[in-house]
Structure to design on (506 residues):
């Protein structure tokens, strides 16, 4: 009986303490005792994954690495880019090919393509040929916040000829790629790279104009640890589809994913993942000299979507003639030809719901040039710049920076780093009017040698979306590639917390 009484007393004491803590800690609604706002602190570790650049012997690939200077970042640390193994080679612990071929690949895989430098200093490296592996990058400490790596490949001839560029991306667990294809003349691959010590298991689903394509080949694909796998989309389904949406869903683990879209007539480029499904989307920076623009959309839910289509031009939001709205059936991929929608001016597509909000994903396929000198690239729906975003491998007279304020007006600061081989940083500030897109005269480092980085920071106003168009070195060919600039997530929100032992005295 005494033991039971003591237990009840102890229990009541604990409850009283907890209740007292809750009473003291609960906000009173006045706002006077509210906790201080969360602090923004630099991230301490960043992972980036670069897909294998090309299967062409004529491929020339450049890599560029840069970390913007971040206040409060650790003064120590380092970054590395190491070769991923081929998934085929890891299945049996061996690799295909002759002894000489294995030796060449081993030498290339064992030698880092570049060694990232301290924040504020870009560095470049290059490689060539068809056997360049995918890369797995890790940065800790000082180089981690905002670390950006660009992979740019020039292919002189053949399927996918032209300029192919991709930002090496952080691993994730889900990806949407509207804009892929299995049509005649297209050769599209989905590249998967696993940075971790355990295998990743993924499902790859394809959606065409009539819905999901039947296939079991894409179910339960295993990507071994520290390995990369590329899958030809036409081997996942024998259905010929002009417009496909590829969904990569990770069952276990995490990985990097990108689609390489190669065309017999219009070259090729990398199709990166669309921003997460949303009812409002911005596809920033369609080249002003685009000769053909095709919008591809998909809604992953069970509800149809009706969207208003507008172009954010230098003078404001306009509606493309004949394409005021688009209807997207649930679970089906929709493609719309917009033609020469930019008509010689800077432009970004702005998609908003006509009535109810239904999440969608979207991308546009852009063609520049005419006849035998056509080239293609992709602009996916993108998240805004946010606090800061960086794009690297910018080159004098070959870089166009597009800034879009689809809602409120905004002010941004753009900083050009020193060059990879020399130069002095430069900074400019721009005001972007509401509902417009501006191709700005971005700063270039004084005395530039090599390539450089551009860092965009939001100063005030509403969200800003951005992209960079990089053109090829041959002025007679319309080679180009487009990279969007979403927030680099170089800082994270850390709540302020402190102990309050006074509750024990109540």
């Amino acid at each position: 009986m005494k033991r039971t009484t003591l237990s009840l007393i102890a229990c009541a004491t604990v409850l009283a303490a907890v209740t007292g803590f809750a009473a003291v800690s609960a906000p009173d609604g006045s706002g006077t005792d509210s906790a201080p706002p969360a602090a923004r602190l630099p991230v301490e570790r960043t992972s980036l994954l670069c897909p294998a650049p090309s299967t062409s012997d004529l491929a020339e690939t450049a890599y560029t690495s840069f970390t913007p200077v971040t206040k409060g970042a650790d003064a120590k640390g380092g970054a590395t880019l190491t070769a991923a193994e081929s998934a085929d080679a890891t299945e049996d612990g061996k690799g295909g090919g002759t002894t000489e071929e294995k030796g060449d690949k081993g030498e290339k895989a064992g030698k880092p393509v570049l060694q990232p430098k301290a924040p504020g200093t870009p560095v470049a490296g290059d490689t060539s040929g068809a056997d360049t592996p995918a890369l797995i990058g890790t940065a800790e400490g000082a180089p981690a916040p905002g670390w950006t790596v660009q992979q740019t490949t020039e292919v002189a001839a053949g399927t996918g000829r032209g300029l192919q560029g991709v930002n090496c991306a952080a691993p994730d667990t889900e990806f949407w790629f509207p804009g892929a294809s299995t049509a005649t003349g297209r050769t599209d691959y989905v590249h998967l790279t696993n940075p971790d010590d355990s295998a990743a298991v993924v499902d790859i689903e394809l959606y065409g104009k009539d819905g999901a394509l039947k296939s079991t080949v894409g179910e339960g694909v295993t990507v071994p640890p520290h390995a990369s796998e590329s899958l030809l989309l036409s081997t996942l389904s024998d259905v010929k589809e002009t417009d496909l949406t590829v969904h990569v869903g990770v069952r276990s683990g995490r990985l990097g994913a990108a689609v390489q879209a190669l065309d017999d007539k219009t070259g090729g480029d990398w199709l990166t993942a669309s921003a997460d499904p949303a009812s409002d989307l911005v596809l920033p920076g369609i080249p002003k000299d685009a000769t053909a623009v095709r919008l591809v959309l998909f809604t992953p839910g069970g509800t149809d979507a009706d969207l208003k289509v507008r172009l954010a031009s230098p003078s404001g939001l306009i509606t493309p003639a004949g394409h005021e709205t688009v209807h997207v059936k649930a679970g089906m991929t929709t493609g719309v030809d917009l033609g020469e929608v930019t008509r010689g001016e800077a432009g970004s597509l702005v998609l908003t719901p006509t009535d109810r909000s239904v999440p969608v994903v979207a991308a546009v396929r852009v063609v520049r040039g005419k006849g035998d000198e056509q080239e293609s690239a992709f602009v996916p729906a993108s998240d805004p710049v946010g606090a800061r975003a960086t794009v690297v491998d910018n080159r004098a007279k070959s870089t166009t920076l597009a800034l879009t304020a689809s809602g409120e007006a905004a002010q941004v600061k753009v900083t050009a780093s020193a060059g990879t081989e020399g130069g002095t940083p430069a900074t400019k500030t721009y005001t972007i009017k509401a509902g417009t897109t501006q191709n700005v005269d971005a700063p270039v480092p004084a005395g530039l040698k090599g390539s450089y980085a551009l860092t965009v920071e939001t100063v005030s106003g509403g969200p800003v979306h951005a992209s960079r168009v990089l053109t090829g070195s041959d002025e007679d060919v319309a080679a180009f590639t487009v990279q969007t600039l979403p927030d680099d997530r170089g800082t994270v929100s850390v709540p302020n917390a402190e102990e309050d032992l006074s509750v024990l005295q109540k």
Q: What stands out?
A: The chain is about 10% helix and 45% strand.
